[in-house]
What we know:
By secondary structure, the chain is of the alpha+beta class. 16% of the residues lie in helices and 36% in strands. It has 2 domains: 2-88, no CATH class; 101-161, no CATH class. It has 2 helices and 10 strands, in the order βββαββαβββββ. The strands form 3 sheets. Strands 3-2-1-6 form a 4-stranded antiparallel beta sheet, covered by helices on one side. A 4-stranded antiparallel beta sheet has the order 9-8-7-10, with no helix packed on it.
Amino acid sequence: MVAFTHNSGQGQIELIENGSVRFNVTGDDYLLQTLQLEFSKGIPTLEEFQQKGIPGKRKTFRQIANEKDLVVILEFVKEQYPSFDIRIIDNTIHLEPQKRYTLLKWNGEYGADAIFIVRDNWTAKQSLFTPGQCEDLFWFHADLANDKAVSTWEEFGEESFDDLRPITF
């Protein structure tokens, strides 16, 4: 696991399996989306090839294999996106793992009229969520929580859950 801070929060990147990566980023959804894009590509490598007898090299990507690869990609993001002000911190310091879903805003209603804006912390997508209707979720690459249409909704304190099904309100 690699821990880091950035201009509006902190984060962790963890290698889970088969080159897959889990993110825990607080404070900036755009940074989370950028990290997901860059880490989905893998580690850039130069592959030698020959075409019609002429040798050359081309940029390809290989699967992320270890924590060192995580640091390499994070350093690349740090260099390419200086506005995020990413600072890698000692890997022995770990943040508390973030759960899968975070409730961001609430319309203030109860029962069947309750609606929340929920963020999937693994994909950085957001959705409108009515408790008890998990099968009706549609996920968006948009910042629904900051949309003008929900500006009167109450902040929900960013409570996180691993599963939305048991939530009742």
